[in-house]
Write a structure and sequence with these properties.
The chain has 423 residues and is mainly α. It contains 18 helices and 2 strands.
Length: 423
């Protein structure tokens, strides 16, 4: 019933976004996804990552066959596109295989095996659909929010020492190598999430069931709820509001060399193209979720999660996509969602309710302070800067302390029974 309800809600949500996009004369997420059955996909790695998620329910033999079929289909598409000089991109084969297994589940499987395979297909398609849904959400934010609150966030960011301006100068100093590495990390965030999720779901094929909680649940929930905050608190980011990328809509061309002056902030009009996707930083939120879920893996996976989080923070700030205040809000946002999902999985109790409520309260307090106290924060950075950091740390501490108590206690080591002395 839970999976059926989630499927109906997801379908209704996609239809609503499709209608909203059509209202602005653009194709919605369902249309864009359907096009990728034939046309060049926007992200080939994402489609293969979705197929990899689907394959967790398959045997190793079925996985090799599925991968081979997907690659073979992509080779055919490549040759055809090369012959007609069309846009080149791989990934159609992965989508065909995923859809093919949906047909196999309906026509060739029964009972629990059919349900398990449909869950795998749904998981893979949800990851791909999440990207299309996000693109449509960004379109809606740019069309429905003609003014942005960047001046408020930029002034509040003085309390943190303007980290985006500092990170921007550091990335600029690293040259093309640092720029390319961070850009790849920033773009392939979903692929990194799949790597961690594959480790968590590695036993699905043998146990014939999914774990009750895993990274994909958190990842998709962040993507579902985050854009709603964009609508409440529209922000475009320093490279647009204070940089050359904002053209004549920018306050001035200041990023990353000159921090914004301490003037009374106002909402400012902006174009109908740039997404209002800064508050909170969902890239930070997703990278934080990857970090959290990689903690229970082997050491190499823990290093991977830490590297991706640090690199994502460097990219979000260093490319001018986010302010420091967005980063703090993104971390609190993720921990609150993760706490709620884990509480729902294990059954709500007092500790789970308190943790989720506390995280939501801190997150709301951050947004209110950014909007109504930016000048006070900027004029007293040695007060408000530590307060912002302490607010984030308090949520981190509460999450670690509470979830540690939720972990199953290890059974005490069995003591050997005393043996009578041998004479």
């Amino acid at each position: 019933m839970l999976w059926a309800t989630a499927s109906v809600v997801a379908l209704g949500f996609l239809i609503a976004l499709e209608i909203a996009a059509r209202h602005y004369g653009l194709p919605g997420p369902m249309t864009n996804q359907a096009k990728e059955v034939i046309l060049a996909p926007k992200s080939g790695p994402l489609l293969y990552a979705g197929m990899a998620l689907m394959m967790v329910v398959l045997t190793w033999r079925e996985r090799f066959i599925a991968a081979g079929v997907a690659i073979g289909i992509d080779v055919i598409f490549f040759l055809v596109r090369w012959a007609v000089d069309a846009k080149m991109m791989f990934g159609n084969g992965a989508l065909w295989v995923t859809l093919g297994y949906a047909v196999i589940a309906v026509t060739r499987r029964t009972g629990r095996e059919r349900l398990l395979l449909l869950k795998g297909v749904g998981l893979g398609l949800l990851l791909v659909a999440g990207r299309k849904t996000g693109d449509t959400w960004l379109l809606i934010t740019s069309k429905t929010r003609p003014t942005v609150l960047d001046q408020y966030v930029a002034i509040a960011d003085h309390a943190l020492g303007n980290p985006s301006w500092l990170a921007g100068q550091i990335v600029k100093a690293t040259g093309p190598i640092g720029d390319h590495i961070l850009d790849y990390v920033y773009i392939q965030l979903a692929v990194a999430a799949v790597i961690v999720a594959l480790y968590q779901l590695r036993n699905v094929a043998t146990e014939r069931r999914f774990p009750r909680h895993h990274l994909v649940r958190t990842f998709l929930t962040i993507g579902l709820l985050g854009p709603g905050i964009y609508m409440i608190f529209p922000v475009v980011g320093p490279i647009f509001a204070y940089g050359a990328d904002g053209t004549h809509w920018a306050v001035a061309d200041l990023w990353p060399n000159t921090p914004p002056p301490l003037n009374v902030p106002h909402s400012m009009p902006f174009d109908e193209i740039t997404p209002r996707n800064c508050m909170p930083s969902l890239h930070t939120a997703w990278a934080t979720a990857i970090f959290i879920h990689s903690r229970k893996g082997p050491r190499i996976l823990q290093f991977f999660g830490a590297f991706w989080l640090i690199s994502t923070l460097g990219a979000t700030l260093g490319f001018g996509y986010h302010y420091g205040t967005d980063i703090i809000a993104g971390v609190v946002f993720t921990l609150t969602i993760e706490a709620a999902l884990r509480s729902q999985e294990r059954g709500w109790d007092r500790s789970g309710i308190q943790l989720a409520a506390y995280g939501a309260t801190v997150f709301a307090a951050l947004l209110v302070s950014y909007r109504y106290l930016p000048m006070e924060m900027a004029e007293h950075p040695w007060v408000f800067g530590p307060l912002l950091i302490l607010a984030m740390i308090s949520v981190i501490y509460g999450y670690v302390r509470t979830t540690k108590r939720w972990e199953p206690k290890a059974a005490p080591a069995r003591q050997p029974e005393p043996q009578p002395e041998l004479v």
